[in-house]
Specification:
The complex is a heterodimer.
Chain A: E1 2-14, H1 20-28, E2 32-45, E3 50-54, H2 61-68, E4 76-81, H3 91-96, E5 97-101, H4 113-123, H5 128-142, H6 157-169, E6 175-179, H7 187-204, E7 207-211, H8 215-221, E8 224-229, E9 232-238, H9 239-246, E10 249-256, E11 269-274, E12 277-283, H10 287-297, E13 300-306, H11 310-320
Parallel strand pairs in A: 3-7, 3-8, 5-6, 6-7
Antiparallel strand pairs in A: 1-2, 1-4, 8-9, 10-12, 10-13, 11-12
Chain B: H1 2-20, H2 24-50, H3 59-80, H4 84-93, H5 96-101, H6 106-112, H7 120-137, H8 143-169, H9 181-189, H10 200-209, H11 212-223, H12 229-254
Helix pairs in contact in B: 2-3, 2-7, 3-7, 3-8, 3-11, 4-8, 8-11, 8-12
Transmembrane segments (chain B): 26-50, 56-76, 116-135, 147-167, 201-221, 227-246
Protein name (chain B): ABC-2 type transport system permease protein
InterPro entries (chain B): ABC-2_transporter-like
């Protein structure tokens, strides 16, 4: 669905210095610096995939997404989305994709969201029946019924985001770009939005590319992640593989009736030993062995094996780099 | 084309609903429109207490001109003024992103998305004043007069639109030109009177360099049966050339759109 080959984007940025003299000088003679926002990125996304696009602020995620959506002109490289070259901005292309930005709104501020939907209906040339069907479906999935006739300005951030999603999906796009869709939402609403995205993807086989700062979004939604840093793609693959590669250990929590006096450090790295509970970081391949050892030899109340938190994994990835990906 | 008419209608409807949110504005707008045209007519009357000609135009002629001015200004305030300054905001805040992903011509969208339909009152009042002027003059325009009038007033509107659009498109590079519409206001105000009223270099400038006067004078003269086919055609052609330029410039500028970061 999405093919990207050797994509580059550089911006010419005016170098600003502080101070009066410098300000005056910059009026006469501006210095420019070329900033490479995206450097030689290549990837392919198949129909129906949900791919998470991760990276620190300023890594080039949004720039790449905007090039995919046809908003920015690539400096060099090739992009096709559903067979179209995005920057040509063909009508057929625009009708098959949609963009949602968590920080920018397309809803008309002073009037109910329904009015925006009707404007979009005209713009996307949706016929009455399809419009009604799609609207009914979205209203149900996103629980919009009580919101439709309230002025947008009176909606909460979470309610507004749900309406944004509906506005973006009315024309049933085949490709959906989500830029920070859950930013600023409370945990409960985040969860709602995520569940909606998963359901919608399953139902309609929409290809979704998502950027987010919240690991929760990525772990809940994506099987595949792409990590970008300083404009370069440093990882592209399954989320599970990434976790395995970067975090070759699991978190083992064991509760005992009486905590035994054993040399804990022989089993793994000690995270915490407290009353009746031991938390260890154990190498992946030893997890089974260690846990069965405790189960056989001690009176264990409860045992809990977990993957390390995603934040930890990603932070490590950026600190240590990816050597062989 | 039909599609764009439908979209335009939808924009109009959405704006209508939006404006009705603030109902009290209706009365205010109605009063200010009547007051504005009333004062303008009064001013013309005061002029004509002193003289019976203004730059070669009689009282009735000037009324027709005033009507044309009001009509054109109503059209500008209806469709252009609400949109043109907004382009700057779209570029600065990055909301142009949404517009560019919509399957409509982006220039059409930024030009006509916001309509202040109260200002159509000015258009109606303008047409009323034109009618009054014609009655005073005891002149019934022929069909050809009306056609030439429509062509020239449309040309004027397109010309103003294109120039304004060209100016606002520069906001892709110069993000801080704070509201340039005041330039248009002072320029457009000169169009209230007959060009013949101005003297010397002012007249030359207003005729050839900044043809503000021509913009209203020509449609008014057409309606009074004093049109000139050649000038009307030149006006129409000029308008089309500028429209084409504005479009080209817009397409060109989009390549430089860098979008505000999120």
């Amino acid at each position: 669905m999405i093919h990207v080959k050797h994509l580059h984007k550089s911006f010419r940025v005016h170098v600003r210095q502080t101070g009066w003299l410098e300000a005056i000088r910059s009026l006469l003679n501006r210095e420019y610096r070329l900033v490479e926002a995206v450097k030689d990125i290549s990837f392919t996304i198949e129909k129906g995939e949900i791919v998470g696009f991760l990276g620190p602020n300023g890594a080039g995620k949004t720039t790449t997404m905007k090039m995919l959506a046809g908003l920015l002109h690539p400096t060099s490289g090739e992009i096709t989305v559903g067979g179209f070259v995005p920057f040509e901005q063909k009508t057929e292309f625009k009708k098959m994709m949609s963009l949602v930005m968590g920080q920018k709104s397309q809803l008309i501020w002073d009037i109910p969201p329904m009015e925006t939907f009707l404007v979009n209906k005209a713009i996307y040339e949706i016929d009455d029946r399809t419009f009604q069907q799609t609207l009914d479906e979205l209203v149900e999935l996103l629980e919009l019924a009580p919101l439709l006739d309230k002025p947008t300005r009176s909606l909460s951030l979470g309610q507004r985001m749900r309406c944004e999603l509906a506005a973006a999906l009315l024309h049933r796009p085949k490709v959906l770009f989500l830029d920070e869709p859950t930013i600023g939402l409370d945990v409960h609403t985040q969860e709602k939005v995520r569940r909606f995205i998963v359901d919608y993807n399953r139902e309609h086989e929409t290809t979704i590319l998502l950027t987010s700062h919240y690991m929760g979004d990525v772990t809940a939604l994506c099987d595949r992640v792409m990590i970008i840093n300083h404009g370069t793609l440093i990882y592209d693959g399954e989320l599970d593989v990434l976790t395995e590669k970067l975090a070759p250990y699991k978190r083992l929590e064991i509760r005992f009736a009486n905590i035994p006096a054993v040399p804990w450090e022989n089993y793994g790295e000690i995270v915490e030993i407290e009353d009746g509970k031991a938390t260890l970081r154990v190498a992946r391949e030893k997890v089974a062995e260690v846990s069965s050892h405790f189960l056989q030899h001690f009176h264990v109340h409860d045992i809990n094996i977990q993957d390390p938190p995603m934040e930890e994994v990603i932070t490590r990835a950026f600190q240590e780099g990816f050597n062989d990906s | 084309m039909r599609r764009y008419v439908r979209i335009f209608r939808e924009f109009f409807r959405a704006c209508f609903v939006e404006e009705l949110e603030y109902r009290s504005e209706f009365l205010g707008n109605l009063i200010s429109s009547f007051f504005g045209i009333g004062i303008a007519v009064l001013t013309v009357n005061i002029f004509f207490y002193q003289t019976d000609q203004l730059g070669g135009w009689t009282y009735a002629d000037v009324l027709v001109l005033l009507g044309v001015f009001n009509t054109l200004r109503g059209m500008i305030d209806f469709a252009l003024r609400p949109n043109m300054p907004r382009l700057l905001e779209h570029v600065r805040r990055g909301t142009l992103d949404y517009i560019l992903t919509k399957p409509v011509d982006s220039m059409f969208y930024v030009s006509f998305r916001h309509l202040v339909f109260w200002r159509l009152i000015d258009v109606l009042l303008g047409i009323g004043v034109i009618g009054y002027g014609l009655i005073k003059k005891h002149y019934i325009p022929s069909l050809v007069d009306v056609i030439v009038f429509i062509v020239t007033i449309a040309a004027s509107f397109v010309l103003i639109y294109s120039l304004w659009m060209l100016l606002m498109t520069t906001s892709f590079w110069v993000i801080r030109i704070d509201d340039l519409s005041f330039i248009f206001d002072s320029f457009f105000e000169t169009a209230r009177f007959p060009v013949g009223m101005y003297r010397g270099w002012v007249r030359i400038v207003l005729t050839y360099v900044l043809p503000a006067a021509v913009i209203t004078n020509m449609p008014a003269l057409s309606l009074l049966g004093k049109w000139n086919m050649a000038t009307a055609l030149i006006a129409a052609l000029l308008a089309l050339v500028f429209l084409w330029l504005a479009r080209r410039f817009w397409r060109f500028a989009l390549r430089f759109y860098t979008s505000a970061s999120s």
